Amino acid sequence: MYEGISEYNDKIDIKSLELDELKNLFVSWDLPQFRAAQIYKWLHQKSAESFYDMSDIPVDLRNVLDEKCCIKTVKIKRKLVSSIDNTVKYLYEMPDGECVEAALMQYKYGKSLCISTQAGCRMGCRFCASTLMGLSRNLLASEMLDEVYCAQKDCKEKISHLVLMGTGEPLDNFDNVIKFLKILTSEEGQNLGMRHISLSTCGLVDKIRELMKLKLQLTLSISLHAYNDETRKKIMPIANKWSIDELISVCKDYFEYTGRRISFEYALINEVNDSPEDAENLSKLLKGMNGHVNLIPLNPVKEREFKRGNQERIKKFLNILLKNGLNATIRRELGSDINAACGQLRRENSTQEA
Ligand code: SAH
What we know:
By secondary structure, this protein is α/β, with parallel strands linked by helices. It has 2 domains: 12-70, DNA polymerase, domain 1; 75-353, TIM Barrel, CATH 3.20.20.70. It contains 11 helices and 14 strands. It has helices spanning 19-28, 33-44, 59-68, 141-155, 174-185, 205-214, 229-235, 244-258, 276-286, 311-323, 344-353, and strands at 12-13, 69-70, 75-81, 88-93, 99-107, 110-114, 118-120, 135-138, 159-164, 197-201, 219-223, 263-268, 292-297, 327-330. It has a 10-stranded mixed beta sheet, with helices on both faces. It has a two-stranded parallel ribbon with strand order 1-2. The protein has a two-stranded antiparallel ribbon with strand order 7-8. Helix 5 links the parallel strand 9 and strand 10 (197-201). The longest helix is centred in the middle third of the chain and has 15 residues, at 141-155. The chain binds S-adenosyl-L-homocysteine. The site of S-adenosyl-L-homocysteine (SAH) has 18 residues, from strand 10 and strand 12.
């Protein structure tokens, strides 16, 4: 079976094919390779949604393609715009009715899009809204691509930065995510710089090692959230599988092998992981690693018991890291009036429909 055939449609998911795969497919159909290159540009540079929009492709070929292949697109089901900072939250609906979220943020350097990589999540982090209903399914490369293309069409501007920090664990959908990244950064596609992409993981050590071998120049973000296994196990089930020692060790290898600095995310949860002592111990753990610590004041989720500490507590935590020579910042909060934190809109949507 051709790799691009999706799980819920027996037509070829042509948008998930890398250029070489598309060329091979055309060769197997006795069609010239230059046509594959033309189609690829239509799909990934011009974000065409139908073969019938491809004006320089012969009608006969358009008919053949339409019969054998499908072009997966997502539709905007809801769109919320923050009145504070113009952050946009999209609820996208996919061809099978599954919904995922994306958030579009305006920075000085351009537009940054945060996308989902799975419908739901099976990692079970106890402070996170995305995982409350478990995993529905992985997203296809074409669906992640269309999260980007659809936002670009809507805001009429090119996305300059991308973060894989919406719903889902990107490394739990490894093959599709890598395919997505390769297509998005390809010269014949959007040609987005790999260095403008961040991938966040809760710490699947074996998959981080696999990713490392690809030597992609993206920024790897590790959701650390605790300096020791005891606390981490209380909030992140993945800590039962991989210890902090194993995680830190793969991060060191990753930096050495790829030359890319690691970014550590640390959600500050009141009286769970945010004491001055936690800050001192975190400093010891990360000293000399050349990474960056991104402190995220917890976004309280109503189904969860965790709270955010006060401003003073958060500042004190930051100052201890800085005093100890770490490179650390507090994440600026965007779109707080539209629930821009991941998972909350999707969940709201499905509980309304239930
Ligand atoms: N599965 C990936 C991407 C998830 S979301 C991962 O775990 O890294 C991106 C970041 O938001 C992660 O660091 C995640 O732990 C954090 N996060 C999730 N829910 C949060 C909440 N309610 N408040 C603050 N940060 C949260």
